[in-house]
Each structure stands twice: as C-alpha cells, then as structure tokens.
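Retro notes (design track)

What went well: tokenization of the new backbones is finally stable.
What didn't: we kept losing track of which sequence belonged to which structure.
Fix going forward: every design gets posted as structure first, then sequence, in one message. First example under the new rule, 209 residues:
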C-alpha cells in the first residue's frame, strides 16, 4: 500500500479502488511542483527540474510551465537544513510504503503540497502527514505549500495515527477486491475513472463499508 492510496481513499473510496487496481501515473501540476521543489532545494534550478519532469512525462511542457509560473520559493525554507531527498521508507509490519520528499538535518520530514485550503490542515493533509510520520519513524516535520509559499509545521498526534490505521484496514479490503459504494460528488466531473465507475454497480454489502 502506498501513502498516496490513503489520500485517494479520503477523496473517494472508489477512487482508491480504481487507482490500486488500474492506476496509472498522470502528469499534474503537483508532480511538476515537486520536481521544482527538489531541484531548487538541491541547488540545481528550474532547468534541471524541467529535464526530470519531461523525461518522466514527455510532452507535458505546458503542465510544467503552469506549475513553474505559480511556484513560490519562501525564505522560510532557508531556515531548514536538508539532509537528503526522495527517501524511500517502508513498514513491513503495516504493509505501507512511501517516499519522503526531504529529510532534514534535525531528523524531520518535509512534504510538498500545492495549495493550502485554510488556516489549519485538512483531514486529508493530516492523514498524509501522519502516514509519512508512521512509515518514516519521524514524529514531526513540515508541509510546504508551493503555490502559496507557506511552510507549516506538523506533529503527529495519537488520534491522527489511529485514523491512518483505520483507513489502512479499509484499504486492505479494497486491495483484496472489495468495491466501495459509488459516492456522487463534485470530484466525479473530473474523475479519470468516471466511465468505469458508472458501469460498475454498487453491491448491497458496499453500503456497510
Ligand atoms: S467517478 Fe466519482 S464515485 Fe466514481 S471513483 Fe470517481 S470520484 Fe469516486
């Protein structure tokens, strides 16, 4: 299970089902912003980020340009000393894995996000950060909102960790083939699995998920 499966689940449990079973990596402004963040933190600049992004997603120049025009590098980031980047962590016990964007010299994590939605963390953001904390063993860290230029501190609470485990239990069932009930929302309009979703009926049992 990937940390990204947890955030997909919170967006829509069915989306997690489709991504786990038929997922493909599509270029997005988030992916481009992440490359820019990593490249600037390593002192390599925008050009390098562009090379990395377009070698992963050929023909996605426009996505990169859009992300680059919105990206803000805050002075706040200079207060944090990086130790390493793109560090892979895995918990065999929990069957959870993920890549942490940056690990700092003070043994904290930095996770890239794009736009903040308010003054505090959303549930989805907290679950993502708590999952990073669980898998890496680091109790605290930061989220960096690249299009707002805002660095926000996070410390994992027991409640957040507990909720991650509850979501993992549900994801296990989805991984085994359980299809959650369809939940119509705004997200459906732009969902890459809209067609498949509409043709897959909900089962009686999925209502109790
Ligand atoms: S179409 Fe809607 S209900 Fe179906 S997977 Fe996408 S977001 Fe979820």
């Amino acid at each position: 299970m990937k940390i990204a499966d947890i955030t997909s689940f919170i967006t829509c449990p069915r989306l997690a089902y489709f991504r786990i079973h038929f997922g493909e990596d599509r270029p997005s402004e988030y992916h481009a912003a992440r490359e820019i963040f990593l490249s600037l933190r390593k002192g390599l600049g925008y050009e390098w980020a562009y090379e990395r992004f377009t070698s992963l997603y050929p023909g996605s120049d426009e996505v990169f340009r859009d992300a680059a025009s919105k990206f803000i590098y805050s002075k706040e980031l200079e207060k944090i000393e990086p130790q390493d980047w793109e560090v892979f962590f895995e918990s065999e016990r929990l069957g959870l894995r993920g890549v942490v964007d940056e690990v700092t010299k003070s043994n904290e994590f930095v996770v890239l996000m794009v736009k903040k939605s308010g003054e505090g963390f959303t549930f989805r953001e907290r679950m993502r950060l708590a999952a990073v904390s669980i898998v890496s063993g680091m109790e605290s860290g930061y989220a960096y909102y690249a299009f707002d230029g805002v660095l926000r501190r996070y410390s994992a609470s027991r409640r957040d960790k507990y909720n991650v485990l509850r979501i993992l239990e549900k994801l296990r069932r989805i991984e085994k083939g359980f299809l959650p009930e369809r939940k119509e929302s705004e997200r459906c309009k732009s969902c890459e699995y809209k067609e498949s979703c509409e043709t897959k009926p909900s089962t009686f049992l999925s209502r109790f998920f």
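Added context from the reviewer: The CA atoms of residues 180 and 206 lie 5 Å apart.
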